[in-house]
User: What shape does this take?
Amino acid sequence: MANFSKSNAPEFSVEVYQNEYLPEGGREVNAIVTVASTGGGTTGGMPLPAATPAGAQFGSGRPDAGVVIMVDCSGSMDYPPTKMRNARDATAAAIETVRDGVAFAVVAGTHVAREVYPGGGRLAVADASTRTEAKEALRKLSAGGGTAIGTWLRLADKLLGSAEVAIRHGILLTDGRNEHESPEDLRAALDACAGRFTCDARGVGTDWEVKEVTGIASALLGTADIVADPAGLAADFTQMMETAMGKEVADVALRLWTPQGSTIKFVKQVAPTVEELTERRSEAGPRAGDYPTGSWGDESRDYHVCVEVPPASVGQEMLAARVSLILPQPDGSAQTLSQGLIRAVWTDDMAASTRINAQVAHYTGQAELAHVIQQGLEDRKAGDMDGATAKLGRAVQLASASGNADTAKLLSKVVDVVDAASGTVRLKAKVAEADEMTLETRSTKTVRVKK
Assistant: This one.
């Protein structure tokens, strides 16, 4: 296992957990790849630029990160009026959390996108003066108009692209459905922005569409959540911005190389959330493909990799895949941050070949948990109560067995649990809309395997 380490820079490591033993003729190899980034502070080992006057253009001391906050200002944000006030307060709290030297901007989103601060198609550089100016500009925010989120994202992309920053991040708040542009327009905007910046998305209240908000976060490798009570926005925005300020390295890719005859069946992130990556592969040379992972701070994530290998006889062994963490360089080359190996060994020892690795088993269950929650809620909405009961019962069983207490608690607001171990439940007759939306939004959150 190789590590990336450079004076005060974050250090990356890769660990592979698997049962490499296959029965004679066996073809499927499963592995959990744990990637960790540690150390390096919040600037990737680079010194912070000197404070830049308000509105100044970027010079040699350019910022290392840029962030754009997109605030829903559609007419529905005035119902109740406290919602808009809470959104302003939350944005102000987020701005206060932007560290000196980071480039930032605020966008008001309706059926069009409008620059609130600093204006002029650029970003400001955070210091005491620009933070004060930005918070003052928020006083002018008012509600009115429709919702076309694709326009917000495109403006954020344009603003972030105006500065040469390594970390590019967006924070998006909406309270309603994307009713003033087509789903195709939003998808086109997401496709255009994917790989250019990451974005955390939040839905406030209960009048927004869960799949829209989670789809935005998924496409842009960010997080999604619900803030059912607008009074909680300030704390949530502050936490989001603190996390964004902790990102140190951007555009890291998981590169998988397979030998002749082997193919990648699927790749998915399984912790801290379930995220399908298989279709996001970009070719990276003969028998190699890159899967995007976005920006990294001081954190670790787990990925489930499934490889199909050619069948072989007892006693043979092979390298099923090589896993590398890749960081693109300005000259077009790629730096390898860390590596790990996935192996296949054919044996006639039935005990060895049928043993499921604990990490693989755990995360297979967590992925199923996310799936059955979403399917169960769909059945409930469609009026299929038997299907909903069966699927949500299975979810309760999986959450209990894996120790996913947070998800178990959310499930208990939708079903009455008779016996968690067997998955015996009864659907609640009445469920608060916020509870159902919270369960759906957070269904992909997982717990780490118990060591």
The chain has a mean pLDDT of 92. The chain is about 30% helix and 30% strand. The longest helix spans residues 358-382. The radius of gyration is 23 Å.
